[in-house]
Amino acid sequence: MSPAGERRSWWRDAVMYQIYPRSFQDANGDGVGDLPGIIQRLDYLRALGVDALWLSPIYPSPMRDFGYDVADYTAISPQFGTMDDFRALLAAAHARGLRLLLDLVMNHTSDQHPWFLESATSRENPKRDWYLWREGKPGRNGRPSPPNNWQSVIGGSAWQWDERTGQYYLHSFLKEQPDLNWRNPTVRAAMMDVIRYWLEMGVDGFRLDVANCFLKDETLRDNPRRVFGLRPYDRQRHLYELNQPENLDIMRQIRATVDAYTGRVTIGEIYALPPGDTALSAAYYVGGEGLHMAFDFAFLFSPWRADAFARAIDRWERALDPDHEPYLWPNFTLSNHDQPRAISRYATARGEETLARARVAAALLLTLRGTPFIYYGEEIGIRNGRIRRSRIQDPFGKPYWPIYKGRDGERTPMQWSAEPEGGFTTGAPWLPVNPDAARVNVAAQQDDPTSLLNWYRALIALRKREPALRAGSYRRVSVSGSRALCYLRETAGQRILVALNFARNAHTIALPDEGTWRVLLGSQQPEEKALEGGALTLPGYGIVIARAVS
Ligand code: GLC
């Protein structure tokens, strides 16, 4: 598709919403969210105003990594429902104008996937080369040691010894998640079939799990060491198992497969953590006919400072280089299923202040140039859950207790109402519902014009109404240290000013021109007042979104 044609694609104008299906809505009372549950809540999502839903994995899985360990790419886990349920969800979503994206986890499979079970039977098995099996190095006492020094993300060597065939296999994550061999053309072909299977069914696109990990250095060189880092994984520079140059070829192949169908989208999860320019890593995968979008997770690691957010935006804008390739498109996200929720990251001791920050963060997310991704429950201010050790489910946390308790906190059930278990389930929820659910829930916020939920709705509606907020350029007007950020979004015919006060105290910013600005949305009532003159005083955590009146 030509860049010009692509510029009008739906996903650039869309607001995306990530659902963690286990935790969204349980319809059958088993304590785990499911597809019929999501169907029940589609009207809620439509009223929120989002355009597309991304579902974390719903495929059959032993659930060692809660679905990110796939045992069958073209079926539905019975925990979530049936293929008929999925078709019904797709149809019901489409009937409401909502698009549906699936999460494709293709770097690795589950160790229970038939491909791996076969591959593990013998060295001669035709599927042996579908995974990364290697001889050990001679170790102490004649026992083999791992082929190289690569670490799994969750701790320990990335190589697992297999007694039966006397070789190691590579697992970048859990040992129950063996990495596929993407250098094998048969593996690639099988995965393209998976992609086509869902596209044929009408799925609108994919989030690609750890898209920069697929290819590994062919000669398996040792990673150089780094001095600092919490986990052994952090004490290496990941030169040889991440971002291999040929990895982009795979993304191009995926892109070409997807582009054979109209109107579909790909968004890559780029596994890149600070320090380091995460935007540059992400941008690499959207350039050169790569993916439509890639996540830069800089916001997930940004401290609560206006200048830190401004820097993250600048880096992303610069990395995507809008002057040269204006069709490379950014996106922004505050939270996901792998990192503590933004509202808790930015919480202070005072509840009101925490909420005020959540409003500023939402205004930022929904007025930037780039597709916003909302994480379920963010719109009502669900906090990170505090999970007792005995109830921790996420295996990623276990090697690092007590400093890191894993990712359950950001995965607690959606809080729908003041009913028992927040209206999420009639059974026993798989993770505890936050104790504040009786107060913080959709039902309580639905009709309250001052609620966070209605703030999200208003921002989304505004983004829909104002072309400059969707498609306009981004230009920073000012950033006052940690305190305030002000920028313009401009199209040929429209100019919108966004001013955000990140601080508790009032702050005055200079407006870009003398003209008159009509406030479209703000943190203070009444909203419809004109700003005159060259300066604007924002109260603590004040927000103004205004349009230039010519
Ligand atoms: C991605 C997912 C994460 C998962 C990991 C392994 O980072 O977001 O949840 O555990 O990949 O698939």
CATH architecture of the largest domain: Alpha-Beta Barrel
Question: Would you tell me the overall average pLDDT?
Answer: 94
The distinct bound ligands, ions and cofactors come out as: alpha-D-glucopyranose
| Coarse morphology | globular
Determine the CATH superfamily of the largest domain: Glycosidases
Strands, total number: 21
The largest beta-sheet arranges its strands as 11-10-9-3-2-1-13-12
**Low-pLDDT ranges:** 1-6
Structural class: alpha/beta
Through-space gap between termini = 36 Å
Number of domains: 3
CATH topology of the largest domain: TIM Barrel
Regarding CATH, which class of the largest domain?
A: Alpha Beta
Description:
The chain has helices at residues 3-7, 10-13, 35-40, 42-48, 83-95, 114-119, 185-201, 247-259, 278-284, 306-320, 342-345, 351-365, 442-446, 452-465, 467-471; strands at 16-19, 52-55, 99-104, 133-134, 137-138, 144-145, 159-162, 167-170, 205-208, 265-268, 293-294, 331-333, 371-375, 473-480, 484-491, 494-501, 507-510, 516-522, 530-531, 535-538, 543-549. It has 550 residues and is α/β, with parallel strands linked by helices. The protein folds into three domains: 3-108 and 185-460, Glycosidases (TIM Barrel, Alpha-Beta Barrel); 114-170, Oligo-1,6-glucosidase, Domain 2 (Oligo-1,6-glucosidase, domain 2), CATH 3.90.400.10; 473-548, Golgi alpha-mannosidase II (Immunoglobulin-like). Strands 11-10-9-3-2-1-13-12 form an eight-stranded parallel β-sheet. A six-stranded antiparallel β-sheet has the order 14-15-16-21-18-19. A hairpin with a 7-residue loop joins strand 18 and strand 19. It starts with a helix and ends with a strand. The site of alpha-D-glucopyranose has 9 residues, from loops.
